[in-house]
């Protein structure tokens, strides 16, 4: 079969914020090719609503030190404090740089970047909420993504849109390049390079109810894992407290930042009981648990499985100006006007704290000792630096993507002079080609859709906000059964042209791998920390578990190693808000 | 290709179609006039023009002129900065004005003719 | 609350058959479900070869624009309860079809490239952000919400007739920078949009406004561009 070969100094997988930001850095030093399975501006970064955190102090006094503390505390002390410090101090110049690139931020009356309150962001180490989230109405991700993509175009970054990555080739502890398929015509393409930056985003689609896009399936993580590389802290998956009931569509935390409150079936503002100081602006893990606790204890709306996000008392003008997008969502999908009726919400799978372990410059780690894979970098949601630890604070994800996208880009560029060009061997390509052919010709009894539906339901039921040993064990058995069923799938579409049936089958295989890692990690960690809440181990256990999980693919299943958390300034303390 | 018609696209279509009809009419008009070389031919034509069918034709022509004029005014107003919020109401009001002016015009026309 | 809908879908499977055909599927959907949910159900349970783009599923990525009952819309933003029982679905008009509901958007995106779609300001940046008043930011507020789904440009009769026409989406992009107080490339950009296939081709048909899933009044923006062009002397001919 015909193979199309390309060479770029740097190849970037993913064209969201992290990918585009890295590309802007790399294009100054060599050629850059960016692959995206969508059109670049369709990347899921565009769905980020509320804001991007930086202690600019435009609206009130703020400092990066407070930001650092909040992020450490938000991470339930699992975040590496050196990395967090880098992120929070880098935040200011990074946001200013974004503004210079053309991001149309909302403005204060003096014309500076406007900022608003967000969950877990406080002044003076937890005293009161602070305005730290820089925003562009409730379309911040969209505004930043477009500006970055536009700068990439200006600088001549080459985009390969609708290319699905099939393999990231790591040999002899160095990245050689990647193999991808052009979705449009099914042709195979090999990209060799000196550096590969993975910025492929999250994998929320392993859960049934999620705010994530259909494209967020996490295959790149699984590709590395299957080659024996580790994944870090996969047990930590964030559920955003306010997803539209029944749909999982995100309603930004900014809604609560602008004054929205959560109420239960009795009409109580229940967050007062869970986080007396900052109430509805507590971190997401706490709010999600609080909502589900209310529902479990029969205090959902009319005893049902949702609560209300109430924006009725918020000035209509604020809704129109600062939250237009979510106002429209409510009108379109629920038929309600948030200034007249409360919004039914329920937690929705939102963000993966875990991912590909990297150092502070985005270099992908291959073990807990800090050894790296030569030439391989990761940034954004797919990576785990770890700045988010066990729970990410709102508006720190966009920040993470641009700060570490930039750092990974810089680090990759700095090695270009000395790095050798990667070489992807023929055997590896034919292996992938055979694999594609096998799925295409598959003739089993199962469909991708039914296996995927059962996977998503199983993960949602047994591995979402609350977890316990028996359930996780049952889940792992179910996942084994699903993997068996996956071997017996068939796809209806056998063609080469835009074969989404084939791609979904490939994605599903990777989703199964990732789900197994998530469930196994969750079973291992016998404590409750951040987003990982074990009902059988309800306390945080710093003595035994103040460490990162590294999961590896062993010969007989998944094996684990642990890496200590980097503590610098802030000693673990009880997490109260 | 089938595509749903909206107020804006219908207004545009009517504007174009009336424009084309008027151009064709104008050509025919000039052609006929330029061939009137003597009084006999002129009188013959005038007699022919008394045909009631042609009278109705003239009324239709009048409607087309009006429609074209008001469509042009609407577009000009939009180009000059009248809010696009009113583009639909302007199309409806225009149509109404066309009708009113046409009825009034037709009234005088008939009084003249009969 | 559930109801049966008939999806009439225009199919084109080039690997099987070079001609197009119409297929009908009957799908049961509840009142909260969208056309996209219907398409997914068909793909999952009736015909796996049915092909369409999708990603965010809530109207922010712009992947699933298609012609639904004669008008361009986002499938993820169109609730079936608002439609008649027979739902007719075709790919976006006037673009080459790759397969079923998937069109080749290259031509569409290429139009954007022509209007210099990036902030140009070569003055040395200040230490902090460039100052922009909320009023000035509001001037571009509507235009920055564009998700480039392609609904507008492919609904425009001028584009149907002249494939070179920049079209509403690219003109809106031009507006977004021309009216951004931080941008300095006014002349270059006006030059780019006032050519033969540029802003003067817009006849204020408003099809783009009818279909924009973000409810952007695109024609209003294009009219403002025309007025700016006149004011600055870019009237199409020699300056």
According to CATH, what is the topology of the domain at 240-348 in chain A?
Flavocytochrome C3, Chain A, domain 1
CATH-defined superfamily of the largest domain in chain C: Alpha-helical ferredoxin
Q: Give the class-level CATH name of the domain at 240-348 in chain A.
A: Alpha Beta
Question: How much helical structure, as a percent, in the residues of chain A?
Answer: 25-40%
Largest interface: A-C, 62 and 61 residues
Query: What is the count of distinct domains of chain C?
Result: 2
What is the CATH architecture term of the domain at 240-348 in chain A? Alpha-Beta Complex
Indicate the structural class of chain A.
Answer: alpha/beta
- Beta-strand fraction estimate of chain A: 15-25%
Number of helices of chain A: 16
Strand order of the largest sheet of chain C: 2-1-5-3-4
Shape of chain A: globular
Description of the molecule:
- The complex is a heterotrimer of chains A (577), B (114) and C (239).
- Chain A starts with a strand and ends in a 13-residue tail after the last strand.
- Helices cover 35% and strands 22% of the residues of chain A.
- Among the domains of chain A are: 240-348, Alpha-Beta Complex (Flavocytochrome C3, Chain A, domain 1), CATH 3.90.700.10; 426-533, Fumarate reductase/succinate dehydrogenase flavoprotein-like, C-terminal domain (Methane Monooxygenase Hydroxylase, Chain G, domain 1, Up-down Bundle), CATH 1.20.58.100.
- In chain A, strands 1, 2, 6, 7, 8, 9, 16 and 17 form an 8-stranded mixed sheet that branches. Chain A has a 4-stranded antiparallel sheet with strand order 11-14-13-12, with helices on one face. Chain A has a 3-stranded antiparallel sheet with strand order 3-5-4.
- In chain A, strand 16 and strand 17 form a beta hairpin.
- In chain A, helix 1 (17-26) packs parallel to helix 4 (140-155), helix 13 packs antiparallel against helix 14 (469-487) and helix 14 (469-487) packs antiparallel against helix 15.
- Chain A is built from 16 helices and 22 strands.
- Chain B is mainly α.
- Chain B has a single domain, classed as 3 helical TM bundles of succinate and fumarate reductases (Up-down Bundle).
- Chain B contains 4 helices and no strands.
- With 239 residues, chain C is of the alpha+beta class.
- Chain C folds into 2 domains: 3-103, Beta-grasp domain (Ubiquitin-like (UB roll)), CATH 3.10.20.30; 106-231, Alpha-helical ferredoxin (Fumarate Reductase Iron-sulfur Protein, Chain B, domain 2), CATH 1.10.1060.10.
- Chain C contains 9 helices and 7 strands; from the N terminus they run E-E-H-E-E-E-E-E-H-H-H-H-H-H-H-H.
- Chain C has helices at 35-45, 106-113, 134-141, 151-155, 157-161, 167-178, 186-193, 207-211, 218-231, and strands at residues 3-11, 21-29, 65-68, 71-74, 86-90, 97-99, 102-103.
- In chain C, helix 6 crosses helix 9 (218-231).
- The longest helix of chain C has 14 residues, at 218-231.
- The mean pLDDT of chain C is 96.
- The chains are: A alpha/beta (577), B mainly alpha (114), C alpha+beta (239).
């Amino acid at each position: 079969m015909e193979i199309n070969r390309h060479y770029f100094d740097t190849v970037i997988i993913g064209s969201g914020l992290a990918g585009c930001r890295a590309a802007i850095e790399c294009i100054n030093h060599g050629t850059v090719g960016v692959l995206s399975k969508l059109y670049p501006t369709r990347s899921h970064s565009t769905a980020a609503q509320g804001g991007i955190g930086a202690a600019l102090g435009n609206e009130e006094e703020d400092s990066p030190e407070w930001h650092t503390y909040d992020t450490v505390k938000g991470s339930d002390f699992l975040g590496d404090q050196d990395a967090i410090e880098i992120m929070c101090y880098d935040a200011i110049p990074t946001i200013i740089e974004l503004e210079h690139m053309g991001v149309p931020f909302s403005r204060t009356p003096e014309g500076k970047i406007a900022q608003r309150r967000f969950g877990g962001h406080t002044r003076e180490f937890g005293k009161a909420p602070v305005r730290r989230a820089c925003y562009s109405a409730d379309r911040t991700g969209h505004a930043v993504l477009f500006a970055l993509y536009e700068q990439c175009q200006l600088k001549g970054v080459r985009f390969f849109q609708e290319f699905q990555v099939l393999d990231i080739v790591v040999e002899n502890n160095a990245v050689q390049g990647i193999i991808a398929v052009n979705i449009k015509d099914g042709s195979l393409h090999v990209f060799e390079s000196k550096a590969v930056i993975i910025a492929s985003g999250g994998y929320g689609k392993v859960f049934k109810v999620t705010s994530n896009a259909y494209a967020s399936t996490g295959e790149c993580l699984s590709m590395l894992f299957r080659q024996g590389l580790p994944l870090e802290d996969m047990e930590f998956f964030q559920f955003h407290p306010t997803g539209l009931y029944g749909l999982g569509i995100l309603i930004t935390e900014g809604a609560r930042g602008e004054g929205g409150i959560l109420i239960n079936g009795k009409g109580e503002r229940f967050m007062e009981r869970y986080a007396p100081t900052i109430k509805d602006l507590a971190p997401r893990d706490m709010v999600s648990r609080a909502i589900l606790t209310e529902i479990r204890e029969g205090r959902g709306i009319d005893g049902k499985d949702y609560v209300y996000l109430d924006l009725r008392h918020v000035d209509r003008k604020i809704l129109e100006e600062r939250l237009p997008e979510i106002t429209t969502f409510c009108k379109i999908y629920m038929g309600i006007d948030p200034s007249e009726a409360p919004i039914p919400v329920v937690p929705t799978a939102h963000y993966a704290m875990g991912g590909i372990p990297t150092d502070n410059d985005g270099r992908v780690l291959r073990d807990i000792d800090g050894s790296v894979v030569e030439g391989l970098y990761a940034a954004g949601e797919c990576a785990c630096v770890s700045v988010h630890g066990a729970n990410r604070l709102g508006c720190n994800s966009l920040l993470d993507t641009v700060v570490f996208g930039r750092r990974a880009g810089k680090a990759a560029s700095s090695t270009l002079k000395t790095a050798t060009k990667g070489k992807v061997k023929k055997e590896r390509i034919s292996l992938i080609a055979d694999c594609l052919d096998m799925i295409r010709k598959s003739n089993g009894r199962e469909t991708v859709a039914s296996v995927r539906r059962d996977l998503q339901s199983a993960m949602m039921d047994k591995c979402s906000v609350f977890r316990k040993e028996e359930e996780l064990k049952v889940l792992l058995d179910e996942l084994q059964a699903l993997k068996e069923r996956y071997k017996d799938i068939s796809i209806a579409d056998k063609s080469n042209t835009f074969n989404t049936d084939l791609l979904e089958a490939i994605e599903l295989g990777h989703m199964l791998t990732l789900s197994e890692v998530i469930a196994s990690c969750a079973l291992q960690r016998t404590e409750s920390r951040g987003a990982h809440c074990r009902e059988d181990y309800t306390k945080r256990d710093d003595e035994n578990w103040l460490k990162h999980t590294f999961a590896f693919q062993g010969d007989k299943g998944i094996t684990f190693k642990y890496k200590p958390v980097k503590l610098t300034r802030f000693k673990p303390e009880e997490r109260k808000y | 290709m089938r595509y749903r018609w909206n107020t804006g696209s219908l207004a545009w279509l009517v504007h174009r179609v009336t424009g084309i009809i008027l151009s064709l009419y104008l050509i025919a008009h000039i052609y006929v006039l330029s061939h009137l070389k003597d009084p006999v031919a002129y009188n013959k034509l005038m007699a022919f023009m008394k045909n009631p069918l042609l009278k109705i034709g003239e009324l239709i022509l009048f409607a087309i002129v009006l429609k074209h004029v008001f469509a042009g005014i609407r577009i000009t107003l939009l180009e000059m900065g009248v809010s696009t919020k009113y583009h639909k109401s302007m199309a409806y009001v225009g149509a109404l004005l066309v009708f009113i002016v046409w009825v009034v015009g037709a009234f005088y026309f008939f009084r003249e003719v009969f | 609350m559930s109801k049966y809908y008939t999806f009439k879908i225009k199919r084109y499977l080039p690997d099987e058959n070079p001609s197009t055909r119409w297929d009908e599927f009957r799908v049961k959907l509840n009142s909260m479900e969208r056309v996209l949910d219907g398409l997914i159900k068909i793909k999952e349970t009736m015909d796996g070869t049915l092909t369409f783009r999708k990603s965010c599923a809530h109207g922010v990525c712009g992947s699933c624009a298609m012609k639904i009952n004669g008008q361009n819309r986002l499938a993820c933003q169109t609730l079936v309860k608002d439609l008649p029982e027979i739902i007719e679905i075709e790919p976006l008009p006037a673009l080459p079809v790759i397969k079923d509901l998937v069109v080749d958007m290259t031509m569409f995106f290429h139009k954007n490239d022509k209007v210099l779609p990036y902030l140009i300001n070569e003055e040395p940046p200040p230490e902090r952000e460039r100052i922009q008043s909320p009023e000035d930011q509001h001037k571009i507020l509507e235009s920055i919400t564009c998700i480039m789904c392609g609904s507008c440009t492919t609904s425009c009769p001028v584009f149907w007739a002249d494939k070179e026409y920049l079209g509403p989406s690219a003109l809106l992009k031009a507006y977004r920078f021309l009216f951004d107080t931080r941008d300095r490339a006014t002349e270059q950009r006006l030059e780019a949009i006032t050519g033969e296939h540029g802003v003067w081709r817009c006849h204020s048909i408003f099809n783009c406004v009818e279909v924009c899933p973000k409810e952007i009044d695109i024609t209003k923006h294009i009219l403002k561009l025309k007025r700016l062009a006149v004011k600055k002397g870019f009237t199409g001919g020699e300056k």
